[in-house]
Amino acid sequence: MPELPEVEVVRRGLDAVLPGRTVATVSVLHPRTVRRQPGGSADFVAGLSGRCLGRPARRGKFLWLPLDGEDALVAHLGMSGQFRLDQAAAEPQRHTRVVLGFDDDGPELRFVDQRIFGGLWVSPQGAETPAELAHIAPDLFDPTLDNDQLVARIRARHSGIKRVLLDQGIVSGIGNIYADEALWRARVHYDSPASSLRPARVREVLEAARQVMGEALAQGGTSFDALYVNVNGASGYFSRSLAAYGQAGRACPRCGRSIVREAFANRSSFRCPRCQPRPRVRP
DNA sequence: ACTATATCCTGTATGC
DNA sequence: TGCATACAGGATATAG
Questions:
Q1: Per-residue pLDDT at A283 exceeds 60
Q2: Do A137 and A60 form a contact (C-beta atoms < 8 A)?
Q3: pTM for the complete prediction?
């Protein structure tokens, strides 16, 4: 599942190949992929054709490519979205949803997405920051992030700490994997009320999230299967470094107790029962 | 305003 | 073997 490190790997892959190239052809193979485009496929094609791409930017899990002029192509990978750069003659991947061809001999850009939770759209005047992302908070690597203000916002929430970490309007880029890993590193239970954590504790959680995502990025991201790969189709290697996420029944790398899996908000949460005991104050 | 949940989607794994 | 069910979980609309 692409979270900040995986999306950043993709951004870097696109950055190496796309800037300065001009879109010649746009094929929308599944309308759902452009569901956030006002005017649908026709407006998406019209908005991209003939445009020259700039350097890709990212906020949290969102990517965007400035277009010549002031607009931008915005992308979210969702659960299973991939950008692939392949020569036009190469066999198309199953679940290819959108293809951009260019006016040169370089590779075409394919958006492949099995589950279609991802999407693409053209944001008018979105080159600087797309208006549709106004509600997405800065991520932990954003130089404009105000860490003290973030700590205060987190502590102002009446919800469990993991729910708050996953709220992209508070801090962006963290998903289920890195939330569990950060909480394991900081030895915090996912249901600890955010408002009950001391500021220093919240800072520790954020620093743990920053660290684990930084390490994951250095290893090319976390891949469990072919659903997350870079623009060349290669997997990242961080899954072998996970301490908690997906490790139910395996020994906690710190204390040896068995990691447990628990239902959490229609999904799963993994923790060490000894390092991350349930807090006395229940939410 | 804030919080929680249902929903979208498809391939894979598991159970009977 | 075949069928049904659970599961993976991003963002968002909607309900409370």
A1: no
A2: yes
A3: 0.95
